[in-house]
Amino acid sequence: MPSGRAPSLIACVLLSPWPLTLLCRRLPGVPVAVLSETSRHVLHASPEAQTAGVQTGMRESAALSRCPDLHAEVVTAPEAAAAWAGLLEQLYARYSDRVDGRVPGVAYLQLRSAAARDLAAALQAPVGLAGSLEVAQLAALRTPPGEVKEVPPEGQAEKAFLALTPLGHLMVLGLRAAQLEQLQFMGLRGLGDLQQWSAAQREAFLGVDVGRRLNRFLRGDRSPPLPRYVPGQVLEVSLTVDAPLHELGQAEAVIRALLPDLAGQLRGRTATYLTVSCDTLGGSLSATRKLKWPLDDKGLRQVALLALDDAGALALGIDRLTVQLSGLAQPSRLVGLWAGLAELEVTRDVLDRFPEALVKVRWLDPWAYSTHAMYEWVDWQTGEVRPSAMTPRLGWTPSRAQARQRAVDQVLAFFEGAQP
Description:
Elements: E1 9-14, H1 18-26, E2 32-35, E3 42-45, H2 47-51, H3 60-66, E4 71-74, H4 77-94, E5 99-103, E6 106-111, H5 113-123, E7 127-130, H6 133-141, E8 148-150, H7 155-163, H8 177-185, H9 191-195, H10 199-206, H11 208-219, E9 234-245, H12 248-266, E10 273-280, E11 283-290, H13 297-311, E12 318-326, H14 342-353, E13 359-363, E14 375-379, H15 400-418
């Protein structure tokens, strides 16, 4: 390594809970709260809203009565996932080629100290800088927003930092909330107290899986290095118009012009989310919809129009329309349990060894009310009926008197029908 050049470390950027962070970034300085999609209770509240008296679990009406200026909104899962994928693309393009963001709200990058400080100032988020993913996240949890806490890798500095880790941060190492509550009841205050226990004691109290993971961490075992980020997880096309769009027909024409280029960029892949972003006079408005495979031009156009309607940007006038596809993956198909000629070979081998192993279903009447009249099991080779434990049984057997009366009724019905 050249002299005077600082080594790269693992940076952890904490943006959780991500739906609340996303809402705060859209409306800076405004008290906001994230609502649940079903009951419309408060899931997360910003510090400004909490200062005004808004608490988690409140109804929307109760939260608005506490804070009349509160902006309460439902952030859907597709919308949050699409925004997170876009943020990862920005981190890759501007800061590092090694980015990991499998959990929304927690991003890991390989950075130097100067770049980490720039990132913390740009996102106004706490950033932990260390030699491993776990230590970096523990450092980020103890850092104010917009600042960086660097922990030198290995050595006495890292050991002293880990010894002061509070009990509530040990969820990073796999401990559950119930276990943390038990440890707190026993009087433990942090990781330093757990280090006084033996490895066997930790496994006996925390369980084998959690105890072994914690023991490996205390011995110095860390997560593997960050993999290289694969770009292109978000496809985007946009169009800037000369005059603002106010009519649905105009916007539909723009979407028709954009979607062929977007579908061509897929190159056989499938996408999970479609996002429509509109730049208007009042700011940027966007909406996200989840896609279903297989994708075709008509389906993409309909989903894009639905997302445009969700954004509600036509009333303000659209100056620039952007369509994004995220959550890209290669489609997979299950053709069957046995594919091709192997099906015949495997079936023949099974029947040679176990002649009565396989049965087929012969449908009698799929619309029958009783199961014994719907289908029956037959032998795979001969086609003869094979009663087994799976054979439907008669749910009702008529008595002798009822059977006799039924026969009499059938005879009378025959002769009555035969009369001229």
